[in-house]
């Protein structure tokens, strides 16, 4: 292996211009992602706006239904991962190796930890919409299909998958949303602080 054969290095051992450009681009992208983290509502509004633009584009072009179907399946998969606990209680039922969700009234409270956190859910959903939008610019992805069949398949798949997920939630008694849950508070501190 000669000098300069390794990835991202120039002949003199310094990183190449292309490598530095993409590294810097990745840093800027990550910086913007980090800045957007606390703005949950704004992030989802932008994603819904992109989704609306995508739907209008598909409607106007009258095509790319298979891409839209694939996007719907991808979003359904992300949504199921978002609703699921990180550790599946059905697998943890027989072993006492790790944290599990409470299944009885007198068990200790354990918070719900998602398999796919909200931020990663949003990020993946947005990237999926952008990839689908990019696919609409290439005629190769415009496979002719009878779109009502795809809509029917998607509705059936959604109903079956959500029914299974809801049964799982009921069986293992967990709610993936925090709205309306009881909040547990510790004892109030009634002691006085001492000043020195």
From TrEMBL:
Protein name, as recorded: Protein RER1
GO cellular component, one term: endoplasmic reticulum
Pfam families linked to this entry: Rer1
Claim: Mitochondrion is one of the keywords in the record: no
Residue ranges crossing the lipid bilayer per the database entry: 41-60, 66-83, 145-162
Subcellular location as annotated: Membrane
GO aspect biological process, one term: retrograde vesicle-mediated transport, Golgi to endoplasmic reticulum
Gene: Rer1
Lineage of the organism: Eukaryota, Metazoa, Chordata, Craniata, Vertebrata
UniProt keywords, alphabetically: Membrane, Transmembrane, Transmembrane helix
Signal peptide: none
Its membrane topology: Multi-pass membrane protein
Keyword Membrane: yes
Family: Belongs to the RER1 family.
Function: Involved in the retrieval of endoplasmic reticulum membrane proteins from the early Golgi compartment.
